[in-house]
Amino acid sequence: MSKSSLSRYENGAPIPLHLASVLDRVYSARGWIEAAVLSASRGHWDPWRTDEVSRLHVHTWPSGYSGLVAIHLRPTPATVGRPHQIRLAWGPWSARLTLTLPRSGLRLMTGKSRGEVSVPFQLDCDPPVHALFLVGAPNDEPHVDIRSLWYRAVN
Fold this sequence. Notes:
By secondary structure, the chain is an alpha+beta fold. The chain is built from four helices and eight strands; from the N terminus they run ααααββββββββ.
């Protein structure tokens, strides 16, 4: 990243999604910059143009964050309106659900408590999807509250 690009971002220019984790590491922000950039992009996220689709997504929210978190799932054009088998794992907790995703996608909402370390959140979806990880409550966007779906996984 050039010095002029970094200066523009420091002075308020929108930060591209693909640079969020880079800046987070540069400033040793422990996930806070990445969380802010991802959440700020929620209104204009266009994964069909900019992101690669994947079956497995892994994310960590900042350990010090406590509150609602969301995962915005967008299907590929070929899988709009088809059922998606979703498996979630977060530390000792798991959840499974099947959702039919509209073209605009759908948000999964759950809560996160403050912790000593960031615990990786894993999403496995068949067929593959685009995923955007957010903090905070949805405005009026369609969402599915998955807080009651979590169960303790047995090792």
